[in-house]
């Protein structure tokens, strides 16, 4: 098991179909990856969940545990929320924690766990007034939000290319959260 535990949370946006490759890349960077999915993303990946659990060595979670159940994951060193949909970003900023992934990310703010998020929204969503407020609020809470230059650049509605989602930028940002070894 790695010394550094990454909670990788994915929302239901097309780049989530590449999550196994992202897990492998994070593991190659020395992360012990725990994968959490929004309920819709878990539904999209239902056929792949056993393989994802085998890959990570942890249960893939999309629901809160029941009271009294032990936590199946080790404590997080960092959280990466990507792809993060319009709904996920706004719910997180507003503290609406009906989904496990959003609840964990919201709690991570208070625990001081490094957080990186990369949205996956089209340019039409940027025009909604709540989205800008949510991004601003999350940045103000210490979340590194990879939106725009150097992160995810929204496309016109219907013109996105899921394979062009810049996972490498998200992985590089979360890797920067790890403390450098003393010496």
UniProtKB/TrEMBL annotation:
Name this polypeptide is given: Flavoprotein
Name the source's superkingdom: Bacteria
Source organism phylogeny: Bacteria, Bacillati, Actinomycetota, Actinomycetes, Kitasatosporales
Domain named Flavoprotein: residues: 12-121
Pfam families recorded for this chain?
Flavoprotein (PF02441)
Which InterPro entries does the entry link to?
Flavin_trans-like, Flavoprotein
Q: Which residues form the signal peptide?
A: none
